[in-house]
Design brief:
This protein is about 35% helix and about 25% strand. It has helices at about 10-15, 50-60, 85-95, 125-145, 155-165, 180-185, 205-210, 215-220, 225-240, 290-310, and strands at about 25, 35-40, 40-45, 75-80, 105-110, 115-120, 145-150, 170-175, 195-200, 245-250, 265-275, 275-285. The longest helix is centred in the last third of the chain and has 22 residues, at about 290-310.
Length: about 325
């Protein structure tokens, strides 16, 4: 109005009023200004109703506010564990599992392997990475040797890496798993550097003829027993040049279980060469689930038995 040498009318005074804290928006096509105010995280915009004026002001003042903000940095990582069930593992992680925590943790389970998925989010990439690294380190501190790898690493891969790093070799003797352990070990290229081969001795007659398990021992203890598992492992090691032997014998089901040896009973034995002699150890397991799951868990547990032995050794 001043530019056109006109005096303001009473209505013009009303147009000039604005709420406390609001900002006036210039109108390039008219006299009525717009208003902009902040309410929490929300912009409140008031524009004149004249289409020509509103469109021009919308382009000038509102569109810039609608530009999509930069997406926050989001980083993920996975740790693979074996040896603790999901509930026990969650208890060990404690407050790290809080739903409102950042980074956020999630658990998935498959054949005894519990994977810990960690997601870190921050407006700043460096802060997201630092928070992720700190959380991964704390998980490893709390779980120790239960953590065997990252990403999609399998137990067989982890064992293969340990054997290769130490220049050691392995043979297997399998009854209830019928070659599954050997199959897992040879899924990775280059497995021949550390896995020499194995025996599948499903029938008792082959346990005796191929690996030297005495018939009397089989009759007295039964094929699914600590004594037979130990003889399978030592027999495999004696008949090879390997440094370690893993042996499995069990009842995968659904038939064959008894009150003394229910379905899912598995004995796993490890034989190793130490100071010129063969040392053996065995582990008793009772796995729930269907036949396939029992066999898978047995093979995974055998791998973990060797993994822990390698970590504890020189």
């Amino acid at each position: 109005l001043a530019a056109s040498a006109r005096s303001p009318a009473p209505a013009n005074h009303i147009l000039a009023q604005r709420p406390h804290g609001a900002e006036c928006l210039s109108n390039p096509c008219g006299t009525a200004p717009g208003l902009k105010a902040r309410l929490g995280q929300t912009w409140l915009i008031a524009l004149p109703g004249v289409p020509l004026e509103m469109q021009a002001m919308f382009s000038k003042h509102v569109v810039p506010l609608l530009q999509k903000p930069a997406a926050p940095a989001m980083l993920t990582a996975t740790l693979r564990t074996f040896g603790l069930g999901e509930a026990r593992l969650a208890a060990e992680l404690g407050a790290l599992m809080a739903r409102d925590r950042n980074p956020k943790l999630g658990l998935t389970v498959a054949a005894g392997v519990v994977s810990i998925c960690v997601r870190s989010q921050s407006p700043d990439l460096a802060l997201a990475q630092a928070a992720l690294d700190d959380t991964l380190a704390e998980i490893r501190r709390r779980l120790g040797t239960c953590v065997y790898g990252t990403g999609q690493t399998t137990l067989a891969e982890a064992v293969g890496q340990l054997l290769s790093a130490r220049g050691r070799t392995l043979v297997t003797a399998e009854s209830c798993t019928a070659g599954l352990l050997g199959s897992l070990l040879t899924e990775m290229p280059g497995a021949s550097a550390y896995y020499l081969g194995g025996w599948v001795v499903y029938a008792n007659a082959l346990k005796t003829s191929l690996l030297g398990v005495p018939e009397a021992l089989l009759e007295r203890e039964g094929a699914v027993s600590q004594a037979v598992a130990l003889r399978l492992a030592s027999g495999a090691l004696e008949r090879s040049r390997a440094d370690y032997a893993l042996a499995l014998t069990g009842i995968a089901g659904p038939q064959g279980g008894t009150a003394a040896k229910p379905r899912g009973t598995v004995w796993i034995a490890l034989a190793s060469r130490q100071a010129g002699a063969i040392q053996t150890t065995a582990q008793h397991c009772l796995f729930p689930g269907a036949r396939g799951l029992v066999r898978q868990r047995a093979a995974q547990t055998a791998l973990n038995l060797l993994r822990l032995h390698l970590l504890a050794g020189p």
